[in-house]
């Protein structure tokens, strides 16, 4: 059930301070968890290693199993087919996840006890909320590639989330995505500073228009 490797904690932490928008820019702007996955926890940043679950809509038996085998820093990523009929997690599972050191949840489905989620501060992204509880019958799988909001996630991928949404960085390409993302963040920090002090250079706008014959 654990036939995958996790990225080093050092590599994961290097992504923590980079906005998802910048990482997305360096993944060709086509890899994302969809606008339907929204934060229920406030503004805490999600950053960790994916532990994936595929489950029948409305059933969370295999999510419980994932919590039992999760390691500190794991993000439980659940493909529940986007169904909103029954909640996949609630306050009890949330608190158990905290004791396990889980870094957060990404659920292509519904949650409940949204007030407790908001107060906990543990990052939780989901498609919606309902008071209806889950079933615990299965079937399901842990550790297999899943799709959440149109985004393919494999266990061991680096999962990032902030106010703009959720993104999974393939573990196999994390290093090559990190370098240009760090460089872009530095460039944008410089641009913001030049805007603040009035020295921003906007000549690129007319140059681009001329290059396009406009």
Textual characterization of the structure:
This protein has 214 residues and is α/β, with parallel strands linked by helices. It has one domain (9-181): Glucose Oxidase, domain 1 (3-Layer(bba) Sandwich), CATH 3.50.30. Helix content is 34%, strand content 25%. The chain has 7 helices and 11 strands. Strands 1, 2, 3, 4, 5, 6, 7, 10 and 11 form a 9-stranded mixed beta sheet that branches. It has a two-stranded antiparallel sheet with strand order 8-9. β4 (87-89), α4 (91-99) and β5 (104-111) form a beta-alpha-beta unit. The mean pLDDT is 95.
- The portion of residues forming beta strands comes to 25-35%
Following the backbone from N to C, one meets helices and strands in this order, namely HHEEHEEHEHEEEEEEHH
Q: Considering the protein shown, what is the CATH homologous superfamily?
A: Ribonuclease E inhibitor RraA/RraA-like
Question: According to CATH, what is the topology?
Answer: Glucose Oxidase, domain 1
Helix-strand makeup class: alpha/beta
Overall 3D shape: elongated
Instruction: Summarize the biggest pleated sheet.
Output: 9 strands, mixed
* Computed Rg: 19 Å
How many angstroms does the end-to-end distance come to?
58 Å
How many β strands by DSSP? 11
Our count of domains comes out at: 1
CATH architecture annotation: 3-Layer(bba) Sandwich
Q: Considering DSSP H and I runs of 4 or more, what fraction of the residues is helical?
A: 25-40%
InterPro entries: RraA/RraA-like, RraA/RraA-like_sf
Cofactor: Mg(2+); a divalent metal cation
Organism: Nereida ignava
Protein name: Putative 4-hydroxy-4-methyl-2-oxoglutarate aldolase
